[in-house]
Amino acid sequence: MTTWQPDILGDGYQQLSLPLGTDPDGEGQISATLVRYQPDEADLPDRAVLYVHGFTDYFFQQHLAEHFAAQGYRFYALDLRKCGRSLRPEHTPHFVTDLKFYDSELDRALRLVRDEVRGGVLLAAHSTGGLVLPLWLDRLQRRPGGARGAGVTGLILNSPWFDLQGPSYLRNVGTAAIDLIGRLRPKDAVPGPKLETYGASLQQGGWTYDLDWKPLTGFPIRFGWIRAVRHGHAQLHRGLDIGVPSLILRSGKSGSAPAYDPEIDTVDAVLDVRQIARWAGCLGNRTTIVPIDGARHDVFLSTPLPLGEAFRELDLWLEWLDGHRTGDETAGARADDARPRTTGEHA
Questions:
Q1: Are strands 13-22 and 29-37 parallel, antiparallel or unpaired?
Q2: Bias category Basic and acidic residues: which stretches (predicted)?
Q3: 123 domain residue, yes or no
Q4: Nearest to 29 by CA among 68, 77, 71, 86
Q5: Domains in the chain: how many in total?
Q6: Local structure of residue 31 (DSSP, 8 states)
Q7: Is 55 exposed, middle or buried (0-12, 13-18, 19+ CB in 10 A)?
Q8: 255-260 long-range contacts, Cβ below 8 Å, gap at least 24?
Q9: I want to staple 23 with a disulfide (CB 3.0 to 4.6 A). Which of 30, 73, 127, 193 is the partner?
């Protein structure tokens, strides 16, 4: 029996804890948290969105949930193990040594959403979540029925993390060092400066969130975690088959600064957008990639003009997806009609 509880986001938002048992990374009992936006039970849509956050993040973007609701989708979001609502004092925030471990909560969340919604489920993710979901879908695609058989209809990625940013030596010599240290000392923190640049930009933009769950300088990056991410990048670069169409939204350009500068409000201050463009074709199936000029790293936390453009592009793609699915169903019906009928088959 599932018992939804009131969520911290207030009216219309509820949460459900998903116990996951003992942590394979040795940090005791773990759970994930499924959040749903259900403002009115009188007329619930028969399709849904399931959203997954990135690193040093959790779900708090109410305007995103409410936009999808206005487009006729029920909205769900998953705070992964050791993240946001699922973080406990004994946990190392966001720490996993294998991105496949997330399959447990993703499988459970999808089943729960499918239990409540008769129609299909559209997946959405940001940043590291934009790596986790395609890898999971690729594994899901290998199961009987594949992604579509599991009810997944499409994928929306918001600035997905497709490669390690920075100088090229970090992606070869650096990755070898990450692999070694990540095996021997997985919880050691990767050395590097702690910058508030991106967090300060979000705060300047008026976005508010829990700083214990999303600190301005970010959580420390652990060698075991970044090793898992690099293994995920390598899988992506070899090519995936996610089984459904995808939309990728990203900023028009990247930028950085040692401290907050208004220019940071108009660029991706976290990832290299050229890498997103380069590796987008590795998802398989039909992929649409749209740069949003002036967008932040989280495109849906941009300033009003690029935010409006991102929502317009999203809505156009949702409209296309509806037509694409209808076309598939019509083509399937035509194929059934044209198929030779055997003796005993009813007309």
A1: antiparallel
A2: 334-347
A3: yes
A4: 86
A5: 1
A6: E
A7: buried
A8: 256/197, 257/197, 258/193, 258/195, 258/197, 259/195, 259/196, 259/197, 259/200, 260/196, 260/197, 260/200, 260/201, 260/204
A9: 30
Strands (E), the chain: 5-6, 13-22, 29-37, 48-52, 74-79, 121-126, 152-158, 246-251, 287-292
Do the beta carbons of residue 268 and residue 162 sit within 8 Å? no
CB 15 within 8 A of CB 85: yes
Q: Could you tell me which residues are beta bridge partners of residue 125?
A: 52, 157
The angle that helices 129-141 and 223-238 make with each other, rounded to 10 degrees, is 50
Mind giving me the DSSP string for 96-133?
Answer: -S-GGGGHHHHHHHHHHHHHH-SS-EEEEEETTHHHHH
Whether 222 contacts 285, CB under 8 Å? no
Name residue 34's beta-bridge partners: 16, 78
Q: Which of 258, 248, 41 is nearest to 124 (CA)?
A: 248
| In-domain check, residue 179 | no
Full residue range of the structural domain in which residue 287 is found: 5-164+228-333
Q: pTM, whole model, 2 decimals?
A: 0.92
Q: What 3-state DSSP class applies to 260?
A: coil
| 51 closest CA partner among 38, 39, 37 | 37
In order of 5, 244, 257, the CA distances from 14 in angstroms are: 5, 29, 38
Confirm whether 46 is domain-assigned.
Answer: yes
Is 54 within a domain?
yes
Token pair for 291: 């740069």
From first to last of its 347 residues, what are the pLDDT tens digits of the chain? Answer: 579 999 999 999 999 999 999 999 999 999 999 999 998 766 788 999 999 999 999 999 999 999 999 999 999 999 999 999 999 999 999 999 999 999 999 999 999 999 999 889 999 999 999 999 999 999 999 999 999 999 999 999 999 999 998 777 677 778 999 999 999 999 999 998 889 999 999 999 999 999 999 999 999 999 999 999 999 999 999 999 999 999 999 999 999 999 999 999 999 999 999 999 999 999 999 999 999 999 999 999 999 999 999 999 999 999 999 998 765 554 443 434 433 322 222 22
- Residue whose token pair is 């990450």: 178
